[in-house]
Amino acid sequence: MIRVLVLLIPLFLFGNECIKCHPNKMDQCKKSNHFTLKNSINITRKIWGIKNSDVTLQTLPQSKLNIQNPKDLVDDFLRRKCLKCHLTSKAVNKTNNLCLACHNTHKNKDDAKKAIPTQAKCLKCHNNNFIGTDYLGLFPHDFDKSYRSPITKDGKYPPRPYGIDFHHLNADIHYELGMSCIDCHKNNKSKKWEETISCKSCHNNLSKKNHKNYHNKLSCNACHSAWSISSYELNVLRDDTPNYQQWSRLKVQEDKYLEKFLTKALKSEQSIRPVMPDWVDDKLEDGIWYSGYRFRRWENFFLINSDDRKIKIAQPRFQYRISYKNKDGKMILDDIYKQNGSKIEAFLPKEPHTITKQSKSCQMCHENKIMFDKNLIYKDMLKGKVLKGSPLTKEQLDKMQSNRYKLERAKSLF
């Protein structure tokens, strides 16, 4: 209980000068997922084996010392590998004002427009494997040194915003037209933190020619996203030993602290103690968390039903293979990827921010081998629990390959 109170005290201290003019905003903020991180925390804890998880950033337990299975390790993983981005984290907010993590200061009402969150503020957290930098057309590289971008004419590597190497793909059409995040993700004057918006909020005169009624359950993104980030099987290892040489080709793991630490450790003639920050308490703790995906693709996608009764692209966001080596060099967990006979993985509905005016071709969905080819390589990686939705039913899959589809497809070719 004491620990929870300590974490809640900043609610009354941070942003106190802002509350004078915006008294209801702090209450909105405290209930928002930006503040609690409740969704990602509880999904991860559930996947790693904790039943009925219902905690927030402010009530997240301390890391356990006795590690026997993944659920004993998940809170340490969250605190030190995942939760760097939150409103009170010094990694994104170096002030003592909660509001300034997203907003800028302003002196009076006439100057208030300067406080509106900029796109740069949003992308400080919304980068990497999540929605955000894809809006700019940026797709993160695989981690090995061989995937580094080609050097420039001056013999140097290109800049790496957010410590990440990116492929440069098509940007979202809304970005190319000059729109920023808050043009759609608006705060409003009601009790809710953010307005509920959809494509039809602006695009209310859609052509009937290309939007047939049998596609009315498809989300707009399912057809109009140019590409989607799919990162498969996140291998994570917590290593409490100073075993750094094996990571010489994997210094860039989208973690600025780890990259700086490995660079120093690999050059040092003395053994450096393996430590990493707890981003919730801002304290260094023993052990280093390393990570790497099995592979990343933008061309592989498949569809699932979402809870809002729309068909959306599936994102393999929670696929894990978990390992842990203690300070004595003993492997306590060695590549654990199943619990109780089920893989530690889940798919979620996703709405990529890579919109283009041109829609996908019919065959990209109706002849998608991932959904229909029973002999597809890696098929086991494309199956798992669907959270906040459900897999397509046999009836839906049959309709996608029905004679009606073949007839409509034939019409479009002539």
Provide structural commentary.
The chain is 24% helix and 17% strand. It has helices at 2-8, 10-13, 16-19, 25-31, 33-36, 38-47, 70-82, 119-123, 173-176, 220-224, 256-267, 363-366, 369-372, 394-400, 403-413; strands spanning 138-140, 166-168, 230-239, 275-278, 283-286, 288-297, 303-306, 311-315, 320-325, 331-336, 338-339, 342-343, 346-350, 385-386, 389-391. Mean pLDDT is 87; it is low at 1-13. It has 414 residues and is an alpha+beta fold. It has two domains: 2-195, no CATH class; 228-413, no CATH class. The protein contains 15 helices and 15 strands. The chain is globular and about 70 Å long. The strands form five sheets. It has a five-stranded mixed β-sheet. A four-stranded mixed β-sheet has the order 6-3-9-10. A hairpin with a 4-residue loop joins strand 7 and strand 8 (311-315).
